[in-house]
Write a structure and sequence with these properties.
Shape: globular
CATH topology: Rossmann fold
Radius of gyration: 15 Å
Strand order of the largest sheet: 3-2-1-4
CATH superfamily: 5'-nuclease
Number of domains: 1
Largest sheet: 4 strands, parallel
Length: 129
């Protein structure tokens, strides 16, 4: 299973043609993909027009949605943040710690276009495309 991060959804929904959006396009037609509830929120709250909101909501309604934050993930995400911080790496957004940790703990591959995920791949075994 592959989770798609907000960074890729934004590019995809705005019609950008790049390696990550091409990968998403392929995955939508060939693989089981999912979206985290926090990612769903981030993408939908950025949509300005009602018609576009409805279109994207329908697309997301067909995906498997994971509730990515609970008490266990909160503790593990904090531990991962502290581990990286001790290595001199500061993750800019808590949501990226949550998404990374959820994917690590649930053996889910992440498709992203955000440099904050790189340390999770390098030091904490986050699987990415």
């Amino acid at each position: 299973m592959v989770m798609i991060d907000t960074s890729v959804w934004i590019d995809y929904l705005s019609g950008k043609d790049n390696q990550k959006t091409n990968q998403l396009n392929y995955l939508l037609n060939n693989e089981l993909i999912c979206i985290g509830d926090i990612i769903l929120l981030e993408v939908l709250q950025g949509i300005r027009f009602d018609k576009e909101f409805e279109r994207v909501s329908k697309l997301f309604h067909n995906l498997i949605t994971h509730n990515v934050l609970n008490t266990e993930i909160a503790y593990k995400a904090a531990q991962n943040y502290r581990y990286l911080r001790a290595k001199g790496i500061t993750i800019r957004k808590s949501v990226d710690c949550i998404i990374s940790t959820y994917c690590i703990e649930n053996d889910i591959i992440l498709l992203h276009n955000d440099k904050d995920f790189i340390p999770f791949t390098k030091y904490l075994k986050l699987q990415v495309i």
